[in-house]
Design goal:
The chain is 20% helix and 40% strand. The chain is of the alpha+beta class. The chain folds into two domains: 3-94, Beta Barrel (Ribosomal Protein L25, Chain P); 101-200, RNA Polymerase Alpha Subunit, Chain A, domain 2 (Beta Complex), CATH 2.170.120. The chain has a six-stranded mixed beta barrel. It has a four-stranded mixed β-sheet with strand order 10-7-9-12. A hairpin with a 2-residue loop joins strand 4 (62-66) and strand 5 (69-80).
């Protein structure tokens, strides 16, 4: 999914200038990284607010149109108002085509209802983590990582090492020797007793 955002350079900085921008429906931000200097920018609040609700916006290479010049960036940080539905500030990082990036990518879990742990043991799929840090070149960054639970038995888990990744992508935790569990099938006490009673009959 290709996402393009528009911004304009921001010359006035400071608390007062940022407050005036927000009152005008704009968001102060910054784009940094690469071999260029950091640039203060401002963006349309409404457009960014709705993009932040899009999962792909958080884990994709974005195209930033800054005054007619386009460059590839990643969303790195943003701040929300503690009460209002308002974005206060947003940060983007320029993307290098030759250096690996670290990004959090969401998991998309599938086929839990087909697993023996759910069908035969009346278990429930428990998503232990919903995203993971990956390392890859910008061109290889996936929008999400699919996790197939179809084979999972009750009480068993899927670990990072069992998940198939796109070419050129690796889990940061796994590279450091941490093969953490991602999902498991948990059998509630009542369901377990019911299954044992049915088996006994």
């Amino acid at each position: 999914m290709k996402i393009e955002i528009s911004a304009i350079p921001r010359t006035l900085q400071g608390t007062s200038a940022s407050r005036r921008l927000r009152h005008a429906g704009r968001i102060p931000g910054v784009v940094y990284g690469g071999e260029k200097d950091a640039v203060a920018i401002d963006l349309d609040h409404k457009a960014i607010y709705f993009l932040l609700k899009n999962e792909a916006f958080h884990a994709s290479i974005l195209t930033l149109d800054l005054g007619g010049k386009k460059e590839q960036v990643l969303l790195r940080d943003y701040q929300m108002h503690s009460v209002k539905q308002q974005v206060l500030h947003i940060d983007f990082q320029r993307v290098s085509q030759t250096e690996k990036i670290h990004m959090k990518v969401p998991f998309h879990f599938a086929n839990a209802e087909l697993s023996p742990g759910v069908k035969l043991s009346h278990g429930i799929a428990n998503h232990i983590v919903t995203e993971a840090d990956v390392s890859c070149l910008a061109k290889d960054l996936p929008e999400f990582i699919a996790v197939d639970l179809a084979h999972l038995q009750a009480g068993h888990s899927v670990h990072l090492s069992e998940i198939k990744l796109p070419k050129g992508v690796e889990f940061v935790d796994l590279a450091h020797g941490d093969d953490k569990a991602v999902a498991t099938i948990v059998v509630p006490r009542g369901a377990k007793e019911a299954a044992e009673s049915t088996a006994a009959e």
